[in-house]
Amino acid sequence: MNTPTSSNPAGAQDVLDFWLGDGLQLGWCSDNRDELWFGGGPELDASIRQRFGPLVAQALAGGLGDWEPHMETRLALVLLLDQFTRNIHRGQPQAFAGDARAQRLVRDALATGLDRDLATVGHVFLYMPLVHAEDLASQDEAVARFQRLVDTSPPELRETLGRNLHFAKLHRDIVLRFGRFPHRNAALDRTSTAEELAFLKDGPRFGQ
To answer: Which of 95, 107, 122, 192 is the most buried (most CB within 10 A)?
Structure first.
């Protein structure tokens, strides 16, 4: 684990080390983290709840504002709000309770250039709140950002980043069609339309 600094407090560093390992130092993680990032499951959810539950609660309550000024600690906050919420509150409305703040933090970082020196893997998870947004402008921005990553990254990362771009486009197409993600309807107690019900039977869907 990296040594905490005054600009990167221990709690934020714990989040970054757990989720990204050595990725921020190397540009991309030296180990395969797909199971952690995309696998999910009760055991992982319980582990994240036990280890990071109090930090997620603080973030959802509007706390940890001192993490916002620096890009890496802001990224840790975005992970709490956008990724860990989905593990801790899987299938519940609270899974999406951090989305609005996460999206604001991302848009501000992009607008001000705070993300300029962020590692490639950091950019992937910085853009995820835009992929999760139920509005077309954010979806279009996500696709454009992932396209830029593919176009500007080293050849050895292009296949991996191409998959991120592919899934960003799938998310965008769902929001373009429905204006929202139908697979969230049950958790958010939203009534599905007939078209959405048909889509949910065999259409592409994602974790949450």
So the answer is: 122
Contact partners, residue 169, CB within 8 Å, separation at least 6 = 143
Provide the number of structural domains found in the chain.
Answer: 1
Q: Could you tell me how far CA 114 lies from the centroid of its own chain? A: 17
Indicate whether 147 belongs to any domain.
Answer: yes
Residue 5 domain-assigned?
no
Below-50 pLDDT ranges, the chain: 1-7
Q: Which residues pair with 143 in a beta bridge?
A: none
Domain containing 52 equals: 10-202
Q: What is the pLDDT of residues 114-154, one digit of tens each?
A: 999 999 999 999 999 999 999 999 999 999 999 999 999 99
Cα-to-chain-centroid distance, residue 80: 9
CA–CA separation, 24 and 12 (whole Å) = 13
Residue 4: inside a domain, yes or no?
no
Q: What is the pLDDT of residue 10?
A: 56
| pLDDT at residue 5, as a whole number | 45
d(CA 2, CA 167) in angstroms, rounded, equals 32
